[in-house]
């Protein structure tokens, strides 16, 4: 079934893409005003100015459905956000215990929450249904989830995500060396058998659906090196290659975690992963706050994706992920909320925090005597680059689209910055000169200004619609 959308479409195809199709704007946004977008089974099949011959042919074709949605003057379609790192069971207690060191916090909060979810499946369903609702409200359409150890609780997570109409990579934890006596897997063999059962059940969950409606898939999830034996990591690597399944974990997160790995394994964190064959183009590693040039080279050559979690890094890491260097090196990078190491589900919060963090890194560099050139960013990252990482960057890393191009999935949110009838800003946004534009088209420079102001102060009240694979969710 085809669907038609007419309006302004804004995306960020690359971190340095130039706008727009009509003029060489200084903006890095790609701004397409008054365009017609057509989908079939949720895939974009046409995107062109609405007055172009090809668009007019579609609009005048009596066999074509009438446009089902027309965006307003101060509304724009934006790709949905991708959250590359979210611990679903930890939503149970998000926003507590953030004053502790990482390893202590894991024992006192994280493991206990996961154990509770596994032992109470009714609670698991309550938590996961509410989590999906909040994700939709926040414009997050694709998530890589860390689950818990239990197969049944992770299947509930998968069912909730699929039913909610969200995209989800569902990760059943693997950990055969748990420091918690009551929460862990007794052996490598049991752990590998459990994850195989999970993969089979995930296949069954979506097997009856047509391919374009299969929104959830499994992702292998060894928690991190301290809880996984070398044998388990090697076994998961074999499963990943045999079944074509993605892998996610934590790497180089904090000083105490990295020191623990070196003291027990006699190797650096990334060396353990690499020797197990778990650094590849289907690998997603969260944090990576230590990123020297040699590691950048390894990650780029292997095609590894990094999930930047600026909020949780501020609480639990001793350094921040070097986003500027990662983007300049053309690494695959997306954003993660890291619930509950980060207290907010909002990827908008993560975007803003990423920019603030990068500016603080640049300030520290200058204080340390780093050279200052007015025409260079140094270590700074701007708001458009953060928008790229939140949308196209994260989605592309997971083998998906993330912007508006023919052949990509139509995953979009409709953002309203102002009411065109009253010229009043929407939500927390205030404008005092929109009335001057009555009857005029909003040009690219003005759109860039409006989008930046939304980026700084917008919230859920600006979101007037959301679609995943062409299906409207809100």
Automatic annotation (TrEMBL):
SUPFAM superfamilies: Composite domain of metallo-dependent hydrolases (SSF51338), Metallo-dependent hydrolases (SSF51556)
InterPro entries linked: Amidohydro-rel, Metal-dep_hydrolase_composite, Metal_Hydrolase, Metallo-dep_hydrolases
Keywords on record: Hydrolase, Metal-binding, Zinc
GO molecular function: guanine deaminase activity; zinc ion binding
Domain called Amidohydrolase-related: residue spans: 78-419
Superkingdom assignment: Eukaryota
GO cellular component terms attached to this protein's record: cytosol
Cofactor: Zn(2+)
Pfam families xrefs: Amidohydro_1
Gene Ontology BP annotations: guanine metabolic process
Protein name as catalogued: Putative guanine aminohydrolase
Organism of derivation: Naematelia encephala
């Amino acid at each position: 079934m085809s669907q038609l959308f007419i309006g302004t479409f804004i995306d960020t195809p690359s971190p340095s893409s130039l706008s727009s199709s009509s003029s060489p704007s200084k903006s890095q946004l790609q701004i397409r005003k008054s365009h017609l977008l057509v989908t079939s089974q949720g895939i974009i099949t046409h995107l062109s100015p609405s007055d172009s011959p090809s668009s007019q042919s579609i609009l005048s074709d009596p066999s074509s459905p009438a446009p089902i949605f027309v965006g307003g003057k101060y509304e724009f379609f934006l790709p949905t956000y991708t959250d590359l790192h979210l611990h679903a069971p930890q939503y149970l207690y998000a926003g507590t215990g953030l004053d502790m060191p990482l390893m202590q916090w894991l024992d006192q909060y994280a493991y206990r929450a996961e154990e509770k979810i596994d032992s109470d499946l009714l609670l698991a369903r309550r938590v996961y249904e509410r989590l999906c609702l909040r994700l939709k409200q926040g414009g997050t359409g694709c998530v890589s989830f860390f689950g818990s150890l239990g197969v049944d609780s992770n299947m509930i997570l998968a069912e909730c995500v699929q039913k909610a109409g969200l995209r989800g990579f569902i990760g059943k934890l693997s950990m055969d060396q748990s420091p918690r006596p009551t929460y862990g897997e007794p052996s490598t063999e049991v752990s590998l058998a459990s994850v195989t059962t999970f993969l089979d059940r995930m296949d069954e969950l979506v097997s009856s659906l047509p391919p374009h409606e299969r929104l959830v898939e499994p992702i292998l999830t060894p928690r991190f090196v301290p809880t996984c034996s070398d044998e388990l990591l090697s076994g998961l690597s074999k499963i990943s290659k045999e079944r074509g399944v993605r892998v996610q974990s934590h790497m180089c997160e904090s000083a105490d975690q990295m020191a623990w790995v070196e003291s027990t394994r006699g190797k650096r964190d990334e060396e353990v992963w690499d020797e197990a064959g778990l650094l590849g183009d289907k690998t997603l590693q969260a944090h990576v706050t230590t990123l020297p040039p040699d590691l950048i080279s390894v990650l780029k050559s292997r095609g590894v994706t990094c999930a930047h979690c600026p909020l949780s890094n501020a609480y639990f890491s001793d350094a921040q992920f070097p986003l500027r260097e990662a983007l300049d090196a053309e690494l695959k990078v997306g954003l993660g909320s890291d619930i509950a190491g980060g207290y907010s589900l909002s990827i908008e919060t993560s975007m803003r925090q990423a920019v603030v963090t990068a500016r603080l890194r640049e300030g520290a560099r200058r204080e340390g005597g780093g050279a200052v050139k007015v025409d260079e960013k140094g270590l700074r990252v701007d708001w458009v680059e953060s928008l790229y990482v939140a949308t196209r960057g994260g989605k592309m890393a997971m083998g998906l689209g993330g912007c508006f191009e023919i052949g990509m999935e139509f995953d979009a949110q409709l953002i309203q910055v102002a009411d065109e009838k009253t010229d009043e800003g929407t939500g927390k946004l205030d404008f005092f000169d929109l009335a001057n534009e009555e009857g005029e088209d909003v040009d690219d420079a003005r759109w860039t200004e409006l989008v930046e102001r939304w980026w700084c102060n917008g919230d859920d009240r600006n979101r007037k619609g959301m679609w995943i694979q062409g299906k409207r969710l809100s």
